[in-house]
Amino acid sequence: MKHKSVEEIVLEIKDKSELMIDLAYSSLLYDNRTIAKEVYDLEDMIDELYKNLQVKTLELVENKKLSVNDALSVLRLAEAGEQIADAAQEIADVELRDVELHPILKLSIRDSDVVFSRVEVASGSILANRTLGELKLASETGMVVIAMRHDTRWLYGPNKNTMIDPGDILFAKGPEDGEKHLIDLASGKSREI
Amino acid sequence: MKHKSVEEIVLEIKDKSELMIDLAYSSLLYDNRTIAKEVYDLEDMIDELYKNLQVKTLELVENKKLSVNDALSVLRLAEAGEQIADAAQEIADVELRDVELHPILKLSIRDSDVVFSRVEVASGSILANRTLGELKLASETGMVVIAMRHDTRWLYGPNKNTMIDPGDILFAKGPEDGEKHLIDLASGKSREI
Hints:
The structure is a homodimer. Chain A is α+β, with helices and mostly antiparallel strands and about 190 residues long. Chain A is built from seven helices and six strands; from the N terminus they run H-H-H-H-E-E-H-H-E-E-E-E-H. In chain A, the strands form two sheets. Chain A has a four-stranded antiparallel sheet, sandwiched between helices. The longest helix of chain A is centred in the first third of the chain and has 30 residues, at about 35-60. The interface between A and B is large, with 57 and 56 residues.
């Protein structure tokens, strides 16, 4: 972490905090404590990133390598990311309260423009044994994979090089049409991505 | 607003607060004060929604129509949404500070897994004179339109029934591959959605 630039840290806080929101809602909708706990771990990571960023930003200002104005933008963007991460933790808390979310509330969140989906990849699926990058799943279906379960191992915020194995469980989000497409692809019903 | 159910308000706060984050980043990347100011207006709207929700939730509890546990979930989810809206406002503030974002910081945000895009719809484009619902743009390209400019009129968070006219400017977000696809569709270079 020590060698990351200020811009890289801002970007990481941005991406991680938004992933946390998605994971938190997913944990609620699928009543999944493992995902909710991951939101907590990511919160700790964001706190560390933010502290590290503050030191770096101040050092750059001290050395006249960053203007006060640019430093303010950096700190405010990072603060906003931290605030988003806190909100995600609050959502995950609702899951961890051990009170199942009221079905109507669940349905309501499910009704959003953006839906959350959970699919298992069948062995005959076109998704099996290919990377997310090869599949271009996000641009072809609109569905972004936010977490994956491979046996008992979890992966959060997978990237282009992440390989999908048969039997993997994908947690994704995207538009309603996209969900139907993803379900058909994962089950093997459709091979047309 | 008085006739919305508690679940509908929770959903509205969720969707609007997430839209605000996207609008705020878009305003920064395209140095667009109009969008940044919209984030402020939406913040006010979320505050109103939240106050309204509190009253409704308490009344339901008083009338024994909602359990204390369910009411807590409702209030916490809405609080989280409000916090996300505040964070979005903080990001919009960076745009409204009148200090252009440092180019490297801009590039860094641009480098995210999710990119923001701004395209003009040519008259020969397949997107012209069709609704977002007909086009299924989000599931076919991964790009979600978050704002549109039609002459001097703006529309934020368009829905399935929103018609795209030639000359409209679309602000969208999605995966990098999706952006290329959207640019080709909007320019008329590709007619294959």
